[in-house]
Amino acid sequence: MTNPQLEGMEIADSVLDLIGNTPLVRMKRISEVEGITCVLALKAETTNPGGSSKDRPALEMILAAEASGELKPGGTIVEPTSGNTGVGLAIVAAQRGYKCVFVMTDKVGKEKVDLLKAYGADVVVCPVAVEPDDPQSYYSVAARLTKELDAYRPNQYDNPNNPVAHEKTTGPELWRQTAGRITHFIAGAGTCGSITGTARYLKEMNPDIKIIAADPEASVFSGGSGRPYLVEGVGEDFFPAAWEPDLLDDIIPISDEESFLTARYVSETEGILIGGSGGLAAAAAIKVAKEADDDAVVVVFNPDSGRGYLSTVFNESWMTNFGFLKECDQCVGAVLDTRNASIENLLYVNPHQTVAEAVELMRANGVSQLPVCKNTPPFANAEVSGAVDELELMEVIHRDPSVMSTAVEKVMSSKLPTIGVGQKVEMAVEMLETAPALLVLSGGRPLSVLTRTDVLSYFTAIAEDAAARG
Ligand SMILES: Cc1ncc(COP(=O)(O)O)c(C=O)c1O
After folding, report:
1. Ligand 1, closest atom to CA 188?
2. What CA–CA distance (Å, rounded) separates 103 from 101?
C-alpha cells in the first residue's frame, strides 16, 4: 500500500502495514548455558501489532474474503475465538470498516473479553456447561449469528488462507533473514497454519530444511487422544485442514511441565517474555540445537507474549497448585512418601464402570473416595471428571439398590479439590477441614488422593521420629 504523501518518510500507511516482518533474535544466553554451538534464533511474533502470529492469517483471510465477495463493505465478521486470532481480526476489521462479533464460553477470563472489546468488537458469552448441539452452546450461537447477521465466518481451522498467509510472509522472511542458511524450523501447531505455510515455502527453497513440530504430549499430532493438557493455543483433538504431515520431518512431544518451565527459563535468561506455547517450541528447539552441527541455523517460532499468561505460567500459586513448582521441602509430597506403600498411587474408576465396581475397589483398598477418570490408561493421561465418596454412595444405594449396576458417571459428585505436590502441608490441613479428600497434582497431572488419615499418619511419623531421636 503506497501513498505518495508518505514518500521518503518512515511512516507506515496503516497498522496493517506493520503486520509481519518480525525480527529474528539469537538466543545467545540460553546457547551459552546449554552448550549450544550452532545458531539458535527466535522469530519474535510479538512485534506484530496484535502481539501474535495470528495477525498474519487474520489479514490474509479478510483480504481473500473481500476479493471473493464473501465479505461486503461494512459487513460483519463472526468467529468463535477468545484468543489471538480474535485480536488479529479485530485490528483488520477496525482498519477496513467491518464489525466483529466474537463468540466465546464463560470459561474465558475477563481480561480476554475486555481486550477484544477494547478493539471495538462485540463479545457474546455462552455457557460452557452445555452440549455442542444445545442452542445456547458456543457453536450453535456462532452458527445462528452468522446466519442472522449475514456475516462472514473466517473459520481459521478450515480456511486455506490461514497457511497461505505464512507461505507468503513467514517463510520468505525466514529465508531472507537467514540468507538462505536456515537448517531447522521448529513451531507448535494448532490450526497448523504457521507450520504448514512456512514449511511449504522453506521446503520449496531447500527440501533439506528440517521442519519440526513441537506438540503437547497428549495432542493428536504426536499420537495422543487430544487431552488433557494445559498449554494453550497448540495441540488439538482433531486434525485441522492445514495438517500436512508429509511436510514434517519430526514431531517432538513436550509435557506441560517442560513447556511452562522453559517459558520461564527463556523469559528470565534472555529477557524475552514468552508464553507456554513459546516455551513448548523453545524446549523442542533447545533439544534439536544441542544435537545439531556447528553450521546449523535453528529457528524457533514464538507465537505470542508471556503477558497473556501472567495469571497462569507466571503466577507462583497457579504453578504450585498444579504441581509444577515446589514452595517447600517438607510438603504434600512428603506426606505421600510416608504413606503405606501398598496403596497404588492413584486409584480411580472410569466413568462407565458400575457403582458396584467402585464400591468393590474402595473396599478392597480400604479407601473412602475415588476420583473418576477418563482416558486411562495410560495413567499419565488421566482426565478427571468427578469423584465418588463412600458416604454419598451409601445414601444413593440405600434409596435405590438397583443403582449398583448404574454407571458411576450417573451418580458421581464434583471433582475433589486439588493441591500441588509441592504445596505446604498446612494448606492440606486447611483444605481438609471442609473437603473429605484432596486430589494431589504433579506436573499438572493427578498423582494421588490425599486424606485426613494420610496427614495424621504423617504427623504421627514425625512425632515418633522426634521421640526416637530424643
Ligand atoms: C497461542 C498460539 N496460538 C496458536 C498457535 C498455533 O499456530 P497455528 O494455529 O498456526 O498452528 C500457537 C503456536 O505455537 C500459539 O502459541
Report:
1. 14
2. 7
Considering the domain architecture, whether residues 184 and 173 belong to the same structural domain is answered as: yes
Here the cell at position 122 is 462485540
The angle at the Cα of 402, spanning 400 to 408, to the nearest 5 degrees, equals: 95
| 67-96 mean pLDDT | 95
CB 154 within 8 A of CB 103: no
Residue nearest to atom 16 of ligand 1 (CA): 277
Domain hosting residue 272, numbered range: 20-52+163-309
Cα(191) to ligand 1 centroid in Å equals 7
Last residue of a domain, one of 244, 277, 309: 309
Which atom of ligand 1 lies nearest, measured to the CA of 308?
A: 1
What pLDDT is attached to residue 428?
96
Which amino acids bring their CB within 6 angstroms of ligand 1? Answer: 84, 187-195, 232-234, 277, 281, 303-304
Active site residue 54: yes
CA 57 to ligand 1: nearest atom: 10
Residues 6+ apart with CB under 8 A from 309: 232, 263, 275, 276
Spell out the alpha helix ranges (H) of 178-241: 193-205
Residue 292 lies in a domain: yes
Q: What predicted TM-score, i.e. pTM, was given to this entire model? A: 0.91
Claim to verify: residue 94 and residue 126 sit in the same structural domain: yes
**What phi and psi values does residue 188 have, to the nearest 5 degrees?**
-80, 160
Q: Among 250, 274, 309, where does a domain finish?
A: 309
Structural domains counted in the chain: 3
* CATH code at position 367: 3.10.580.10
Residue 155: inside a domain, yes or no? no
Query: How far apart are the CA of 408 and the centre of ligand 1, in A?
Result: 37
Residue having the nearest C-alpha atom to atom 13 of ligand 1:
188
pLDDT in tens, 117-159: 999 999 999 887 777 788 988 889 999 999 999 999 999 999 9
| pLDDT digit string, tens, across residues 206-243 | 999 999 999 999 899 998 877 788 898 898 888 999 99
Residues 133 and 174 in one domain: no
